[in-house]
Amino acid sequence: MLAPTRAASTAARCRWHRQPQSYHTHQAPLNNNNIRRRRRKPPCRRSGSSAFSASLSLLLLLAVCCWCGREAAAAAPGSPLTLRVRMPDGAVKRVKATGADTMDGILSKLGMEKGGGGSGEGLGTNASAGSSTADGATSVAALGLGNGDFLYVKSNSAARAAAKAKSDALERMKAAAVGDKTGGSKFVPFPQHARPPPPRATKRVKTWQDIEAMQAQTFSLKPQKDSNVKKISVEQSAMDDFVGYLKQTGLGKHRCALLFGRVSPSTNSIKVEAMYEPPQQQPQRREGGSSSSSSSTYDPSALAEAARVAVEAATLEDGGSGEFEAEGSAAAADVARAVRVAGLLGLRLVGCCLSHDKREHFMAAADVATASALQLMSMADKGKEEGVFVATVTVPVNATSGEIATEAFSVSNQTVQMFSEGVLGHHQPEPTADKVTTTVAVKEGSKETMTPETLGLICNVAIVQHEGVLQTRFPSANRSKAASLSDLKECLFGKIGSKAAAKNQKKQKQPSFLKRLSDFQLLLFLSRQMGFSRDFEELCSVVQKRDGKSPALDKLKVVLENLCDA
Predict the structure, then answer these.
(1) Are residues 409 and 532 in the same domain?
(2) Residue 97 shares a structural domain with residue 242
(3) What is the dihedral of CA 291, 294, 298, 302, to 10 degrees?
(4) Is this structure's pTM higher than 0.70?
(5) Domain extent for 83
(6) In total, how many domains does the chain have?
(7) N or C: which end of the chain has fewer CB within 10 A?
(8) pLDDT in tens, 295-352
C-alpha cells in the first residue's frame, strides 16, 4: 500500500474541517434557484425639459382661455344675469340682477336690511370669515361678476354687537320704568339688597324658619359707610353762572339742572364739565305758606321728567331728538337736544344740581326719590358697574344773609333697590320733608315705620371745583331772558373782559376763537340755529379735540360770521 502523498493528506484534512461547518450551517446544495440574479439596470430616461415645457404651455393656454371666458361672461350694465348668494346658514338663493344693480339692491331683493343701515349685513365675493364686505353702492359690473357667480352674506360683528347693546339697554330701561307705574321693577340693580320671594301660606304651625322668612320681607335700613362716588368736581364758571342767577332773582326762585361730564371708575370720581337747566316753573306756594311748602325748593316734577328724558335720549342713537318731538312735548325735545350736544362733546349725564332754602336736613323726600330714579335709569343704561356713578349737588340758599353753599350726596344702594321694588314711591306727599313715605313698613333701627328719615338713605360725597375746558360766558337756556344772535356775535367776535379792566383802560389778552367756541350754552344755541348738520358736528369735534390748527376752523368761522350778520 502506497503511502499517502502530502497533497492527499492536506485535502483530507480540509474535508475533515469543513464537514462540521457544513453540518452545523445546513447549507443547501447549490442550484439555479438559489443563485441571486443581478438586477437589470433600468433604461436611461430622457431629459424632462421638453415635458415641462409642454405642461407649462398647456397651463398658460388654459389660463388665457379662462380669463377670456370670464371677460366674456362679465356683466354689462344692462345685461341680465343670475347670481347665487350663499346665506349664513349655508342655503343658496338665486337672484336675478343686472350689471347696474348695487349690493344694497341685491340685499333688498333678498328681503334683508342694507349693510349701511347699521344692522351689519353685507355682501362679499370671498367666502373666508375674515374677508371684508363690498361697499353697498358698488355695482355688479364693478365687481366683475358673471352669470352664476357666488356672493356671500356676511355680518358686521361690531355693528351687530352695538345694535344688540342698544337693544339690551332699551329693554333694561323699560324694565326699570315699570317700577314707577306698577310699584315693582323687573330690573334688579342690587340683588344683595333685594327681598326674597314671600313664603308659601300653610296651615301648619309656624316655625322659627317661617318667622325669619317673614322678617326678611321687611327692609332693614342700614347706613352705607362708603359711597359709590368718592369725589365730584364741578366746573367753576358753570357753577358761578348757576349761583349768580339765583342771586340775580333775589334768592327766591329756585332752580334745578342736569350735570354732564365724565366718570373715572379707577378713582370713583365724577368731573362735571357742563350744566343744563331744563324748562321749569316755580312751584306754587300752598295755602297757609308753611315752611315745608314746595315754593321753598325747585320744581321736582320738572327735574324728574328731564332726568327720564335725558337717560332715554342718551340710550337712543344720536340722542334721538326726533323721538321726543313726536310726543308733542317741547320740554322733552329741548332736553334731548342738550343730551345730543353733550354726546357730541364726549359727555354723559352724571347727576343733577338743585337749590332750596336753608334747612336742617340735607336732602328732602323729593330729592331722594329723584336721585334714586336717576341712578336706577343710569344703571339700566350704562350697566351696573358704570351706572352707579351718579351724584346730586345741592345749593342751600339763605335768603336772610345771602349765604350760598354747595354740597354733594349720593343715595345708598339699598335706597335704589327700594325704589326699584316700589317700596319708595316716586311722588312724595311731602316733597320738602326730612322723611320719605314708603308703600310698606320698613325697619329703621328697632322699630318699623313707613316714614324713615332721609339721613339714613344718603351718603356724603366730597365736592371741589376746577377750571374746565368748556367755559360758561353765553347766556344759559330756559331763563327769563332768552339768548339772541347779538349775544352770539358779541361772544364770538366782541371784546371779552371785566368791567374793572375796562375802566382802568387796561389791555386784556383776548381769548382765541377756539376758546370762544368752547362754551356748552353757546353750542346749545347754535344747535337750534344750525341744526345737527355736518358743519355743527364738525364744530363739536374741533372743540372736543382742542384742535386750534384745524383747517376746518377757518371755514367754520366764515359760516358763523354769515350767521351772525344774517
Answers:
(1) no
(2) no
(3) 170
(4) no
(5) 63-155
(6) 3
(7) N
(8) 567 888 888 888 888 887 776 644 443 343 434 478 889 999 999 999 999 999 999 9
